[in-house]
Amino acid sequence: MRARRPEGRWLLAAAVAALVVVAVVAISLLVWSGMPADQKGAVSDAVAGQILTLLIGAALGVAALVAAVARLVGRYTATARRLTAETRLLLEANPEHRLDRSGPAELTELATAVDDLAERRRVAVREVDSHIRAAQASLTQERNRLAALMAELAAAVIVCNVDGQILLYNAAARSVLGDDAAVGLGRSVFGFIDRDLLAHALDRIEHDSATSSHVAITVRGEQLLQVRVAPFRGPDGGITGFVLLLEDLTDRMNRSTRRDDLLRDLTEGTRSSLASIQAAIETVMDYPDMDADERRQFLGIVREESHLLGRRVETWVAESGAHAGAEWLPTEMSVADLLAVVCRALEREGTVAVSVRHGAADALWVRVDSHALARALAQMAGRLHDEVGVGELTLAATPDGSHAQLEMSWPGPPPRPARFQAWLDQPLTGLAASSARDVVARHGGEIWSGGPAGAAPDLRLLLPLTEAEPQPAPHTSLDLASRPEFYDFGLFDRQQQSLAWADRDLGDLSYTVFDTETTGLDPTGGDQIISVGAVRVVNRRLLRNESFERLVDPQRRVPASSTAVHGITSEMLVGQPTIDVVLPAFARFAADTVLVGHNVGFDMQFLRLAESRTGVQLTQPVLDTLLLDAALHPHHDEHSLEAIAGRLGVAVLGRHTALGDALVTGEVFLGMIPLLQQRGITTLGEASAASRVTLAARLDRSLYNS
Amino acid sequence: MPRKVLIVDDEPNIVVSLQFLMKKAGFDTAVARDGDEALTAVEQFRPDLVLLDVMMPRRDGYEVCQQLRGSGWTDLKIVMLTAKGREAEVTKGLALGADAYVTKPFSTSEVVDTVRRLLTGG
Predict the structure, then answer these.
(1) What SS3 state is found at A621?
(2) Is the per-residue pLDDT at A105 higher than 60?
(3) CB–CB contact B105 A310 (8 Å)
């Protein structure tokens, strides 16, 4: 096209010239035909005399015309082409480019108009960009908020997409299911929830408009789980996923079963004892003439059965009564913290001055509704101020057997007992329908004021102690930065991959990056695995929270030479599971993922030997970061984990523990994926093929070298 | 002169046994059926010891105990009887001035021994 344009310009000029010549000739002929004969003769003579000059003049005139037209057209077309090219540049490469304003005036105006358009586009794009950034920022914030909320929730929550892939879970979910292999991003919920259960829930919810969630019970090994399923919908109204709330009912069921058993024993025992007592006593009364020995025998029965009844009640109280009531109380806290809470509540009321005296009970733990207790004590303080004129209070606590005794004392007179009793029954402000007496009763405590005459006036509150200092919730050990690992909405729309392993993109696959420590280098010569560490990579993220770490009893001594490498001694392995237990657990952890290791052939040799003993097979594909690095850098000789980590800028920490090495390998592997893609190695199949080539090359080389 | 024991309980069936036991042990007895009655009875009967049930209508045993201690009955022995028997209640009863605490059901000899011990100062 472009090559023909100059011709077009000349053709156009020639056409214009031809048109001018034709017009001149036509006008000449017209004038000629309208001339009288004498004039024709004169003109004909004149022309004939100057014919050469005329022809040359006409030819020159035509040539000049052609040149002028061609130049003019050329200037316009060149400018138009330049403007087109510049506009394309602006459109496709550089939105900041502005057009060159030289050239014919009309085209300059066009260039100005294009520039204006470009400017408006730039502004519009910038606005759209900033909207998008703002939307993304708020989305990120919402996600972080959600993740923080989920992490703090005591309830176990799992969110999955319609395929059952886990997008989000919290620490509570992990602790309810209590298994490395059960909860993890991208894992399937069908490992612990029956597929039919979700289908049934879906069916119930879709066919009953009054239902938004469905509760079911599922059994998992020894565990009884309650699952509440609530679906959520996408923008088109279709169900895109589920929120699952899990509750472990095992303990509650066991407790209630135990309580039922006790109650049944109590009921049945009471009936039979009462039957014996009634029969004995009625016999004695109906037969007053029985002899003394008979009477003593019957009365003995009454006494014996009464004692039995008493003992049965004591058993019931001891076994069921001890925990009843306190279970639902929301918080376990130290007595010192409780005093601080009460102190703040009294200070907020502002009616009395408060001080806290610390003592031996501070480190004890109670299970309380601290808000209700603080309200109750604040109310008492208010009444003391209003009716007794108390202006300052001291809070303290002392241990008292299985209780903590909270003490609120003041200088001045005690309240009259009848008034104090009345205060206890007044409704608390801010706690509708509860009195201080109710609150104390709910805690299984006792409250009173004023001891024996002469003692300093005080108010005492007895609260039962919890049995032991509570274990910290599992998520408190996680810092903020690690929280986001509990969610990955990138998995949201991902349908389960139907492609074969080999055709799947390296970035889409889930991986289990692992390492082992061993007693030595010779598996066939009896060396054994002593430690396995692994971490998951999902959606191109290393999930540090989802790791696997086990020590393994090798059932032989660990030589000092290998202890020097990994620091694991034989003593540390006493009581650890054997590989026959650890391998199946590892296989569950690694299910449906690609295995990745550094110089993984070494680890696989050990695992394959264990496979043949346990019958558990690791059938998934395996990638080796050493071979992949050799594929990326065929001319480097150094493919140690440290060397690769150095090249990729990965910090090497905690090496020579199985998990530490697995973490470094995981980061190294993630760093390699984009480099592999640059080399056109994008699928698992291509990565495997590249590894095979480098493996073959390395084998050749080592053959030559040996 | 025999020592005097006031029995305060709203359960007539237990009162029958307690009164019988106290008489047999050689004490003079009187009975009150609730907290208010108990306070009046103490003033009129002027007992050396009160067997005081905790759970009673209107005014409970704790309040009666506190009221008595607060109104000058410091030498009067008070034995609290309760069917609840939680540790917290024992603590509260003793804190409010009771001398002893007996949990229902009790053996008759336990009650008699406690009363004898308190009244003979042994």
Answers:
(1) coil
(2) yes
(3) yes
Whether residue A451 and residue B92 make contact (CB cut-off 8 A), yes or no, is no
Among A306, A453, A464, beta carbon nearest to B69? A453
According to DSSP, the β-strands at A594-597 and A511-518 are parallel
A403 interaction partners in chain B (CB closer than 8 Å): 87-88, 91
Per-residue pLDDT reduced to its tens digit, A487-521: 666 665 554 455 678 888 898 889 999 999 999 88
Task: List residues of A whose CB lies inside 8 A of any B CB.
Answer: 306, 309-310, 313, 317, 400-403, 405, 417-418, 421, 444-446, 448, 450-453, 460, 462, 464
Alpha-carbon distance values, A69 to A5, A105, A464, B39 (Å)? 15, 17, 109, 133
Closest residue in chain A to residue B72, using alpha carbons only: A453
For residues A462-489, give the mean pLDDT: 57
Q: pLDDT band for position A454 (50/70/90)?
A: low
Nearest one of A675, A691, A669, A692 to A510, comparing CA atoms: A669
A661-678 pLDDT, tens digit per residue, is 999 999 999 999 998 988
* Residue that wins the pLDDT comparison between A4 and A491: A491
Domains of chain A: 1-134 (no CATH), 153-249 (3.30.450.20), 252-323 (1.10.287), 332-464 (3.30.565.10), 499-704 (3.30.420.10)
pLDDT of residue B88: 84
Predicted ipTM > 0.90:
no
β partners of residue A227 = A216, A246
B96–A451: do the CB atoms touch at under 8 Å? yes
A517, A657 in Cβ contact below 8 A? yes
Q: How many CB pairs under 8 A join A and B?
A: 51
pLDDT, residue A499, reads 62
Q: Spell A632-642 as b/e; 16+ CB within 10 A means b.
A: bbeeeeebebe
Which chain B residue lies closest to A420 (C-alpha atoms)?
A: B63
pLDDT tens column, A60-103: 988 888 888 888 888 888 888 888 888 888 888 788 888 888 88
From B99's Cα to the closest Cα of chain A, the distance in A is 11
Q: What is the pLDDT, as a whole number, of residue B26? A: 93
Cβ neighbors of A510 (< 8 A, separation 6 or more) are A186, A536, A537, A538, A539, A592, A593, A594
A207 is catalytic: no
Alpha helical stretches, state H, A93-192: 105-152, 171-177
Q: What is the pTM of this model?
A: 0.52
Token code pair at residue A117: 């358009």
**Between B70, B89, B92, which is nearest A453 by CB?**
B70
